[in-house]
Structure formats: structure tokens, C-alpha cells
Design goal:
About 50% of the residues lie in helices and about 5% in strands. The protein is mostly helical and about 160 residues long. The radius of gyration is 17 Å and the shape is elongated.
Length: about 160
């Protein structure tokens, strides 16, 4: 088995119980969600490189195939962490008070990097966002904390 500590193997087994079916494994379409449920932040390109698919039911990934993938993604250096995301959003914090315009965050999610679609952004905001104030501002640190602590699954 890959160089994965026993405790992490137990976490992987739990994710497989929730996301997969016994003996069959998880759908390769859900590879990114499984990795994110294990507190990793793989890019879409990395998920595809590791065997993730864009359509359901094309391929299944069994536990013994997943553990080396998990181990390799865990070693990836290009994963953002809380501090990285906060530093990025500080660029939009004009008053340097921990808040930014909701519209600017929405634009960034829709147009920059690995873009989300409108429905995904709406779901993300519904799950992780405090209401905006009268000026359209939101506290971005709480948003990032919620986003990173509760993985969002997009259908």
C-alpha cells in the first residue's frame, strides 16, 4: 500500500464508504470530490492527470488504486492553503478591514483561474457566505474558513 499512515487510510476508507459502493470503488468522476473531502486541494488539471473523468460511469477507482493517487496529490506543492487564499483576496480589500465587494468575489470565481459556473457560485455562496452588508461588502476570511472546512460537492 502507498506510503499513507494508518489514520489516513481510515479516513480514505470512510470517504469510500460515503462516496462509493462496496467492492466497486468510487466513480472516477468523483475523484476530485474524494480528494477534497480528505482536505486536499487538487486542481482540475491534476485530477484529470490522476485519472479523474469528466463523465459519470466511465471508470471506477478502487481503494488500492486511490491510495497512491492520494499520496501523490498530498505531496503536490501547488495546493493553496488558507493563508494563500487570504493573501489573494486582500488584493480586493480596498479599506484593509477584512472585507471585499461580493461582486468582485463573484467575478473572480466566474472568470479567473479554474472558473466556476453561475450555479456553482450560487451554491457556494449559499453554503459558505455571510450576507453582504448595505454597501455590498462581505467578510472574506469567514468565507474562506467555511469553504475550506466544509467541502462543497457540485453535481
Amino acid at each position: 500500500m502507498a506510503d499513507v499512515p494508518k489514520r489516513e487510510v481510515e479516513n480514505v476508507e470512510f470517504v469510500f464508504e460515503v462516496m462509493g459502493s462496496p467492492g466497486e470503488g468510487i466513480d472516477a468522476f468523483d475523484l476530485g470530490d474524494a480528494l477534497r473531502a480528505l482536505n486536499l486541494n487538487p486542481t482540475l488539471a491534476l485530477i484529470e492527470k490522476m485519472g479523474g473523468t469528466k463523465k459519470r460511469n466511465e471508470k471506477k477507482i478502487k481503494m488500492d488504486e486511490f491510495l497512491p493517487i492520494y499520496s501523490q496529490v498530498k505531496k503536490e506543492k501547488e495546493q493553496g492553503c488558507y493563508e494563500d487564499f487570504i493573501e489573494c483576496l486582500k488584493l480586493y480589500d480596498k479599506e484593509e478591514n477584512g472585507s471585499m465587494l461580493l461582486a468582485e468575489l463573484q467575478h473572480a470565481l466566474l472568470a479567473l483561474g479554474e472558473c466556476l459556473d453561475d450555479e456553482q457560485v450560487e451554491n457556494l455562496f449559499a453554503d459558505c457566505m455571510d450576507p453582504e452588508d448595505d454597501e455590498g461588502m462581505i467578510p472574506y476570511s469567514q468565507f474562506i474558513q467555511r469553504l475550506m472546512s466544509d467541502p462543497i460537492v457540485f453535481d
